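<context>
A single protein, sequence plus fold
<entry> Chain with its tokenised backbone below
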Amino acid sequence: MKLIIFNIFYRERHLDLTTLCSDYYKRQTLIDAYSIPIMSVGDPSTWVVPSDITQRVILNPISRRQARRSRAGRHVSSSERKTTQSCRRCGQSGHNSRRCSNPPMINKGPSRGVPDEYCCKCSICHSIGHNKQTCPNIDSNRE
């Protein structure tokens, strides 16, 4: 809508809209860029190279690791929270379950202490530990 109003505004004053466009985007600039003939360099075996240049040995540049602050020594901003990793498999902190080499916990439950009100409950008897498909009270509720 704004473009139509803008276009009408310029037509009433007999102004050309191309005056607002940069020369870089105009058709004539594109034609001028490709009007110069491009000369091919030919096959490299036919090139005439001076002998002092062919005798030079050019090695790869010596690269160095980019200098930066180590992650351990960086300054933590006040908005960042410190989090500790804990393993779901063994319950210890400092690593995750993918890198865990400890034996798994047996009958100790999850490593995170999740309150009972946030655990999955059965929609029939409202107890924790099973769902409505495996509910032991399902037969008594159907009758």
The longest helix spans residues 2-12. The two ends are 67 Å apart (CA to CA). The chain has four helices and no strands. Residues 11 and 23 are 21 Å apart (CA to CA).
